[in-house]
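Tutorial, part two.
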Amino acid sequence: MDKISPPSLFDQLRSATWHRHENLEKLPFVLALMAGTLPLQSYIAQLRGLTICFASIENALPTLPEAMAERLRPFISRRFLMLCDDLSFFSPRMIPDILPAIKCALDAAVRIRQADPGKLLGYLYVLQGTIRGNQAHLSDIIRCFTLDDEGTFFYQGYGSGTDTVWHEFRSLANGAAPAMTPQAILGAEEMYDFMECFHTLLYPLAEAGSGFTAAGLNPEAGDHPVPQDPEILEAAIRAGKRCRNEFSYYERRYGERGRRFTDSDVAWLAALVTLDADVILEQVLWLGRVLSVRGMPVMLLERQLELLFEELAALDRQPTLDSLQNALEKLRQQRQRLAEQNRITAVSDALTEKLRHITFPDLPVVLIAAHLDMRSGIPECRASLFFWLVDAAILNKTEIDDVCGLLADL
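Running the prediction step on this input gives:
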């Protein structure tokens, strides 16, 4: 007698949860979308919450078997970037978050990061499965909000390649160890629980449930304070953009992810302005060290604070800025104790001449700033910068040695 093969993981997941998808399609959010009456705030909040989840999924992939994680990463990364592109399109509208929905997504992100491989596979089954449902509702999104391509990339998904991606994911999931199946089913159930709760909070809108969040600016930022006044928040984001425009280093090294962190970091700084001077200074110095260890020198944060001060001071309803000005002055004094301005200018000129063959006008300032951080007790900044410059083939090791010689003049 022929031996009957046990059902695949995918078949078991589908059998255990098919009714949950049917329930999602009956939620007021979906019905309003199909009727063309869904508020834009609900749609944008959906994108923001799912971006938080996909960011956590991407960071949790290493818990899966290595071969599976590497094959899944391009698909998950692409969907995350689709969400980011959609949110970037809507960002100038300054539409507030739906606070209970964002909290729900942040709670789900914690569970994703803590999940074992089996549960993570179940979470992936539900989240990646949205590529099919999204395509079914793409025309509803376009009609409801009068959109073209921009603002709908997540719902477009992989386009004509959607079935191919889905079948590849099914093949990968079916290759998982059978022992993962019970946890995968549990994970799928948990993710459906989240999706139902999340979409119920998205629509109908509650009267008192809107505001701005760090996660709405940057899905990887967590839950720290940001200004609730849209004018102040816009001013902070303008200051961040101006700083990035002054230092091409940010874009060269950190790209779009760096832009998102710039938005959330400068918004956090703007939220501090009403606090006592000592508190702001303590927080600014803490942030300066955190950023410096990651390759962003404190002198660049000093410039960011100058630009933030300018933008906030220009507002008609400006907040009290004395505490912010005090923190800025303390950073200046710290820098001046490390090197006199005339020495900084001389070394900058020498570096500019030495590196004239490189199209990177702000590199001399960044090098000096990183060297000053090393002298102030944060050696990781300069080491990180040098490693990146060599790795990105911007400078070779001989040029690094020459740069070190010039920096020693500080």
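The first helix runs from residue 9 to 25. In part three we will examine how such features are distributed along the chain.
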